Amino acid sequence: MKYPNFKDLILFENDDYIVVNKPPFVASLDERGAAGAGEINILRLARQYTDDAQICHRLDKETSGAIVIAKNPEAYRNLSMQFEKRKVNKIYHAVVDGQFQFDNLFVDLPILNDGNKNVTIDRQEGKRAETFFTSLKYYKHYTLVECKPVTGRMHQIRIHLATQRAAICGDTMYRGKPVFLSKIKRGYRLTDEEEQPIMKRFALHAKQITFKGVDGQEIFVEAPYPKDFATLLKLLDKFDA
């Protein structure tokens, strides 16, 4: 895998913060256990760029999009407090399997993270988790959905969508099926080779983030879709509209 040039990922930078557009398949932090040892991740790339870099929140490895890095301890504390008080505004885009008309649908289902990347809905033991969902665009077989998490639990958007039977495309952990061109393009001819999905990961992208800088000024950053997500939408526009 070709590692990204950190400077090319930067969407916003001031004296306190850097916001980058995280590519898919790059972890936010060192992953636990031997599997992640020695692997390039956003934190390592950021520390080569600025010594005191700290990641302020994380995105799943497959998720692309806006992630904030603090350049100094004061900036890190400032944003941590905003996350704690639910003052950070995050918007994600997801492509889900099926047609769904979500109009600011509020999902309030507690999530239990039993470590080991296993996440379940648990009304007794789970921690509070809240997300708003709004459908942005309808296709014949799919829907582009805006997701606004209020809390920041692991896999929150993914599992909350799955509870609505609207699994994210390609999210096999939550029964989401990948999108194949043969499903949407009429007369598509399969060759002898096994057909590859249009996107080789689940279709989730952290599109926008809004928070306050150390000086109290609002910082708003929008992350363009990466190539694979943009390609999926382009093909849906062309063949599944």
From TrEMBL:
Tell me where in this chain the Pseudouridine synthase RsuA/RluA-like domain is found: 16-162
* Superkingdom per UniProt: Bacteria
* Signal peptide per UniProt: none
Can the keyword Isomerase be found in this entry's annotation?
yes
Q: Name one GO molecular function term.
A: isomerase activity
Keyword Isomerase applies: yes
Which key words tag this protein in UniProt? Isomerase
Alphabetized Pfam families for the sequence: PseudoU_synth_2
EC numbers on record: 5.4.99.-
**What InterPro entries does the annotation carry?**
PsdUridine_synth_cat_dom_sf, PsdUridine_synth_RluA-like_CS, PsdUridine_synth_RsuA/RluA, RluA_PseudoU_synthase
Q: By its UniProt entry, which Gene3D superfamilies does this protein fall under?
A: Pseudouridine synthase (3.30.2350.10)
Family designation: Belongs to the pseudouridine synthase RluA family.
Name this polypeptide is given:
RluA family pseudouridine synthase
Origin organism is Pedobacter ureilyticus
